[in-house]
Amino acid sequence: MHKLDTLFLDRDGVINMKLDGRYVRNFEEFEFMPGAELAIANLSKIFKRILIVTNQQGIAKGIMSTEDLNSLHQNMLQQLKITGGTIEKIYYCPHLDAANCKCRKPNTGMIEQAIIDFPNLENKNSYLVGDSDSDITAGNEMGLITVKVDNEYTLAKWSEELLSVIE
Ligand SMILES: [Mg+2]
C-alpha cells in the first residue's frame, strides 16, 4: 500500500481532552480523547510520519516550565508506544498570543520548520487535524488537507473513515 505522507496533529482537543479554562500542566492532568490511542496506532501504519504541532502559551505565562512540558510529552509518547503509535516529532510554540511570533498557529512557523526537518515532506499528500480555526487556517495556508474535529467528530472517528476508504 502506498503510504500517505505526513499527519500533523494538534494536541489539546485532538489527542487529549481540554481542561475547562486551564492548561494541562503535567501527565496527571493529561487524559486521552476517547479512542485516540488506538487511532494513532492505526494512523501510524498508513502515514509515513506523524508530527504534533501545538500552541503552549502556558509556558510564557509561567504556568508550566519547558521541563514540565517535555516530561508530559515523554510520558504521552511512552503510553502511545504501548498501543503501537509512533509520533516522530513534537513541535510546540511556547510564546504568548500577544507576542506575534511566527510559530503560534494560525501562523505557519511550526509546519515550515517540519518541512525543513523533513525535506521530502509532500504537503499535498499530508493532513492536518485540529479542533480550532487557527489549526485549520495554518494547515490551509501550507497546502495541507485539513480536518476539523470536535468532541463528537473525534480523531478516532476520522481515522475509522479514512481507514475504511483506503483499505
Ligand atoms: Mg486544540
CATH class: Alpha Beta
CATH 4th-level superfamily: HAD superfamily/HAD-like
According to DSSP, the number of beta strands is 5
State the helix count: 5
Q: What is the string of helix and strand elements?
A: EHEHEHEHEH
Mean residue pLDDT? 96
Shape: globular
Strand composition percent: 15-25%
Distance between the termini: 9 Å
What is the count of distinct domains?
A: 1
Helical/strand content category: alpha/beta
Low-confidence stretches: none
User: Over all CA atoms, what is the radius of gyration?
Assistant: 15 Å
Please give the largest β-sheet.
5 strands, parallel
CATH architecture classification name: 3-Layer(aba) Sandwich
Bound molecules: magnesium ion
What can be said about this structure in brief?
With 167 residues, the chain is α/β, with parallel strands linked by helices. It is 35% helix and 17% strand.
Question: Can you describe this structure?
Answer:
This protein has five helices and five strands, in the order E-H-E-H-E-H-E-H-E-H. It is α/β, with parallel strands linked by helices and 167 residues long. The chain has a single domain, classed as Rossmann fold. A five-stranded parallel sheet has the order 3-2-1-4-5. Helix 1 crosses helix 2 (66-83) and helix 1 runs parallel beside helix 5 (155-166). The longest helix is centred in the middle third of the chain and has 18 residues, at 66-83. The chain is globular, with a radius of gyration of 15 Å. The mean pLDDT is 96. The chain binds magnesium ion. Magnesium ion is lined by residues 10, 12-14, 130-132.
Features:
167 residues; alpha/beta; 5 strands; 35% helix; 17% strand; globular
